[in-house]
Design brief:
- The structure is a single chain.
- The chain has 165 residues and is α/β, with parallel strands linked by helices.
- The protein has one domain (3-164): Rossmann fold, CATH 3.40.50.300.
- The protein contains eight helices and five strands, in the order βαβαααβαβααβα.
- The protein has helices spanning 13-20, 27-35, 39-46, 48-62, 79-86, 98-107, 120-137, 149-164; strands spanning 3-6, 25-26, 68-70, 91-95, 140-143.
- A five-stranded parallel beta sheet has the order 2-3-1-4-5, sandwiched between helices.
- Helix 1 crosses helix 8, helix 2 packs across helix 4 (48-62) and helix 3 (39-46) packs across helix 4.
- It is globular and about 50 Å long.
- The two termini are 15 Å apart.
- The mean pLDDT is 96.
- Bound molecules: shikimate-3-phosphate.
């Protein structure tokens, strides 16, 4: 079984995945490896729709890897990915309110997120649009705003243990 972390930009998917497993797969990094350029540059050259095609390709190749996958916030944009996610039973949604996510997105200077360059109002609309998909696809939802990555990982570990009992 593969544990898949979903949630909006800034929700800490990669950080939490790193606590859950030192061998976790970071979908964005795998995409960068495949396209041979930073995601922001790919968006500029080829646009978002082409990015979603590659994202789906890479995701479908890795979804049965059996480890932990940190997805990108837009994984729920494509109907094909939503179908894949609906078939999984360990999809964990890292949930937070928009203002704490926006703060985290802006504090993260290392990660240039093309869709986060649009200003708070537009990004909040995207958040509102995606919220239902994240929630609807989640087998477990963890509120992350007031928790450390270690606390979040512990909640997920405990839930997984309960699932197996
Ligand atoms: C995206 C989120 C990013 C990355 C790309 C698109 C999105 O991942 O996949 O910039 O559409 O929300 P993170 O959620 O890891 O920032």
């Amino acid at each position: 079984m593969t544990l898949i972390l979903i949630g909006f930009m800034g929700s800490g998917k990669s950080t939490v995945a790193g606590v859950l497993s030192e061998n976790y797969v970071d979908l964005d990094l795998e995409i960068v490896r495949k396209i041979g350029m930073p995601i922001a540059q790919f968006f500029e050259k080829f646009g978002e729709a082409e990015f979603r095609v590659v994202e789906h390709q890479v995701f479908s190749e890795l979804i049965d890897s059996g480890g932990v996958i940190a997805t990108g916030g837009g994984i729920v944009e494509s109907p094909e990915n939503r179908e894949l996610l609906a078939l999984q039973s360990e999809v964990v949604y890292l949930k937070a309110n928009f203002s704490s996510l926006w703060q985290r997105i802006n504090a993260d200077k290392k990660n240039v997120r093309p869709l986060a360059q649009n200003g708070a109002e537009i990004v909040e609309k995207l958040y509102e649009k995606r919220k239902k998909s994240y929630q609807g696809l989640a087998d477990l939802t963890v509120e992350v705003a007031d928790k450390s990555p270690e606390e979040i990982a512990q909640i997920i570990f405990d839930w997984q243990k309960g699932q197996k009992e």
